[in-house]
Amino acid sequence: MWSVCVGSVTAAGGYIGSIGSALAHMSNRSSNQRFRVVRVPSWWWVSYALTLTLMVFSGFFSMERPAADIFLAGITQTPPTVYLFVCLLSNKWGVGREVYIAQIILSVGAFLNAPLLPLYGILVRMGFSLGTVNTILHCWLAAAWGSQAYGCIVFSRNIEKFEENLMTDQRKMALISLVGKEEPQKGKGKVKAKSKKTAENEQPRRSLRSQSRGKTRSRSTSRSK
């Protein structure tokens, strides 16, 4: 049973990283992007979570102390949590005040578990019983995970808005590229039209010149006679 408890902590890192990859995928296609972030493939996070969870069930994470086991498993969530935080910062998202607040809460909640590691030893040395320490830490943990859940839920609600913004951005880029391609073609068409007009205008001028030359020649021949 304890392996299931610790294994769920190591498996959670895969879910956190997958959320970051989804945000990176949307951020890299958005015009509101602050900076480009590398999109880690989903299979990497699946293999990451499976490998660590198998190590838990194989006994590699066992320190023969429950608190040490759970803290050691929690440390494995650091890389995906940092990746999720970077993906959150990579874009302005810009779909409303609710998402902005959720982004702040999710960012704070992602690192709210970090103080628990030193706090455990501090509370024990202060003379608190293990039951009291576990109660305090689990209440803290509930607040951290609750804030993370709230942020993820708000982002999932606004996925459609994100996609709509991405579609409009892509359409704008497509229109800009089409306009850029059509402008030189229009310029070439205008040049051709101008050349045709000039050729048409030059034809009557040439005919008039030839007629005037013919008249002058006829006059000169009549005078010579």
What are the salient characteristics of this protein?
single chain; 225 residues; mainly alpha; 2 domains; 8 helices; 0% strand; elongated
Describe this structure in a few short sentences.
Helix content is 81%, strand content 0%.
Order of helices and strands: HHHHHHHH
Rg over CA atoms: 36 Å
Q: How large a portion of the residues is in β-strands, by DSSP E?
A: under 5%
- Secondary-structure-derived class: mainly alpha
Tally of strands: 0
Give helix % range.
over 70%
How does the major sheet shape up?
none
Number of helices: 8
**Beginning-to-end CA distance, first to last residue:** 131 Å
Give the rounded overall mean pLDDT. 75
Structural domain count? 2
- Overall shape: elongated
**Spans with pLDDT under 50 lasting ≥5 residues?**
none
Explain the overall architecture.
This protein has 225 residues and is mostly helical. The chain folds into two domains: 2-158, no CATH class; 159-225. The protein contains eight helices and no strands. The chain has helices spanning 2-27, 42-58, 66-75, 78-89, 97-110, 116-125, 130-157, 159-224. Helix 1 (2-27) runs parallel beside helix 4 (78-89) and helix 4 (78-89) packs antiparallel against helix 5 (97-110). The radius of gyration is 36 Å and the shape is elongated. It starts with a helix and ends with a helix. Residues 180-225 are annotated as: Disordered. Residues 187-196, 206-225 have a biased composition (Basic residues). Keywords: Membrane, Transmembrane, Transmembrane helix. The chain crosses the membrane at residues 43-63, 70-93, 99-120.
